[in-house]
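name: query_chain
kind: protein
chains: 1
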Amino acid sequence: MKRIEQYDNYRTFLNDYITEQKARFSYFSNRYFCRKAGIKSPSLCAEVIDGKRNLTEATINAFAKGMGLTDRDGEYFRLLVHYNQSKTIDEQTLFLTELKKFRRKTVTETIPVDHFGYFEHWYNPALRELACLARWNGDYDLLGRLLTPQISAAAARRGVELLLKMGYIAPNEDGTYRQTTPALVTGNNVVGVRGLNRQMGELGIASIENVPVSERYVSSMTVGVSEKTYHALEKEIESFKDRLRSIVDEDDRADRVYNVNIHLFPLSRKVPDHE
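structure:
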């Protein structure tokens, strides 16, 4: 199973736990788990997983005990339950803030303003990943052809040279390359990254037609929100990005470079108050 702090839904975590235990132990069942947790109702676990019932403070503790969670994981589980069962935005924001304290942070480096050239071409961030994944042995033509869309050998060379100059990748003794820090963040360099965001957005649009459905995921939703909810959504997206970084950090068999675009933008002007 994934680490518990990688979950944002306690029902999913509980379902994964039960599924794993059933796969490992032939005697394990929902009824067995309830007995182990000291819960009288043998159907409670299944009903909670199905969303038919919620957990109370008492049953939260019982479930944590039944799963054998450590004190730290048990506290994360408790907060996650309250976060998922919150009925107001204020409650969700409060518990989300507490949950974020438990998540392991990826080491990041902020891109300084004078490294504006990094944002000039979409393939610079892609090369930072790809040059460290592939064994291309100095073949810039191969490196360029591995990208989607392809770039020229000359462009690939300029990109790698830029990354080396900025210190974002470094050569190994065997001719391969490594990243000097796990993740780069833009900091306050909003103007510099605007062009890069535009390029990535255009590539995302092109992928709808050019990339098989099995290799891409595109989804959208249109909602009506207040300014307060908008800022709550901002915080949720940042938390989601933290979880993505955590998942990526666990992947030691990466063989492809992906880009994740997250857009939250208005489709209307503010509606005048109706009084």
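note: Residues 4-100 form a domain with the 434 Repressor (Amino-terminal Domain) fold (CATH 1.10.260).
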